[in-house]
Amino acid sequence: MTVQFQQESLSGRLKTVKPSPTIAITRLATELRRGGADIIALSQGEPDFDTPDHIKAAAKKAIDDGATKYTDVDGIPELKRAIVQKFRNENGLDYETTNISVGTGGKQVIFNAFSATLDAGDEVIIPAPYWVSYPDIVLLTGGVPVAVACGEESGFKLTASALEAAITPRTKWLVLNSPSNPTGAGYSAAELKAIAEVLLRHPRVLVLTDDMYEHIRYDGWEFSTIAAVEPRLHERVLTCNGVSKAYAMTGWRIGYAGGPAALIRAMATIQSQSTTNPSSISQAAAVAALTGPSTSSPRAMPSSRSGAICAWPRSMRRPASPAGRPTAPSTCFRPARD
Ligand SMILES: Cc1ncc(COP(=O)(O)O)c(C=O)c1O
After folding, report:
1. What are the pLDDT digits (tens) for 51-97?
2. What are the backbone angles phi and psi of residue 171, rounded to the nearest 5°?
């Protein structure tokens, strides 16, 4: 007799989360494309340039050199050193290699951080609109996502007063994402400073800043990250980033973070019991990305491109950022009622 798998066999935790909608939309677009449809999929944040050649060459060399074995759990020393330099040179952040964690994509790094810190009932403040995975990762790791609506009037950004109102005795984390997926809004140093002032009054709240789109931005806009803007927060900020978007390496699956050494060690414990280590070959490629020519990342894109994107389709003519245009090209975001 064949016994069917019962839905009830799934865990209660799984029933609270949805599969990633961006992945579902991408799968549908791929299927339609296979059927001959001419589709532009705007769901996944996929850069429209290829992984640069010197990065591919480093990966091929790693295979030939036999770098095909298990590595240190949260990153090889060369990659950690390259990340320390990146944070120092590009962001003015001082980390040692003991403050660095490398995971299988930025998503795993965020998953590790929440797994390592959230207990049942712990709240995570997520400014909305948000990248769809944040609340589900919080739910999967046992926490409670608290979405704080950030409307057009604030350029879809969290204000100091909205943050103050959202903090409760159960707040464990604040998530910041700048430039933002999906709104393209970026926080200025002054805006981050105002948020930092609130956080200084709430010393138990940790900050996860997701800077994944740092390099995907229009020229004329300056990127800032909260631990550099307010060094007094340095010890409770996890600065997350990765090579996926900056170097068109979404398929290579390398993300990283800088943060307090005790948190980084806890994240390594989680990772050691899940994926063990990020791909050895991808790590070698990430070293080449971070230490190679800066022109291998798109850096600032011409703002003429923002004009083109926001002029099309016509219904997108009034972009939402207060500067009149989004600061980053992830999306030209408009509320549905328009
Ligand atoms: C805001 C944001 N953070 C993190 C990620 C995850 O990046 P990775 O592909 O390195 O896991 C994405 C992916 O789309 C994203 O949009």
Report:
1. 999 999 999 999 999 999 999 999 999 999 999 999 999 999 999 99
2. -65, 125
CA of 5 to the centre of ligand 1 (A): 32
Residue type, 10: L
How far is ligand 1, taken at its centre, from the CA of residue 113, in Å? 15
Cα distance between residue 223 and residue 178, in whole Å: 8
Asked if the model's pLDDT at residue 191 lies above 90, the reply is yes
Q: Return the amino acid letter for 169.
A: P
Residue 82 three-state SS: helix
d(CA 287, CA 83): 8
Q: Where would I find the beta strands (DSSP E) of 68-205?
A: 100-103, 123-128, 144-149, 171-177
Q: What is the rounded distance in angstroms from the CA atom of residue 286 to the CA atom of residue 100? A: 14
Per-residue model confidence as pLDDT tens digits over 21-37: 777 778 888 888 899 99
Higher pLDDT, 293 or 107: 107
Q: What percent of the chain has pLDDT over 70?
A: 86
How many degrees, rounded to 5, is the angle at CA 181 between CA 179 and CA 183? 80
How far is ligand 1, taken at its centre, from the CA of residue 47, in Å?
A: 12
Q: Number of helices and strands (H, E) in the chain? A: 12, 9
The residue nearest atom 3 of ligand 1, judged by CA position, is 212
Amino acid making up residue 19: P
Distance from Cα 213 to the centre of ligand 1, integer Å: 8
In angstroms, the first-to-last Cα distance of the chain is 56
| The pLDDT value given to residue 302 | 54
CA–CA separation, 130 vs 164, rounded Å? 19
Domains of the chain, first to last? 53-296 (3.40.640.10)
Tell me, in angstroms, the distance from the centre of ligand 1 to residue 138's CA.
15
Q: Which of 101, 212, 256 to mutate to test the pocket of ligand 1 (most atoms within 8 A of CB)?
A: 212
As a whole number of Å, the CA-based R_g of the chain is 20
Which protein residue has the closest C-alpha to ligand 1 atom 1?
A: 181
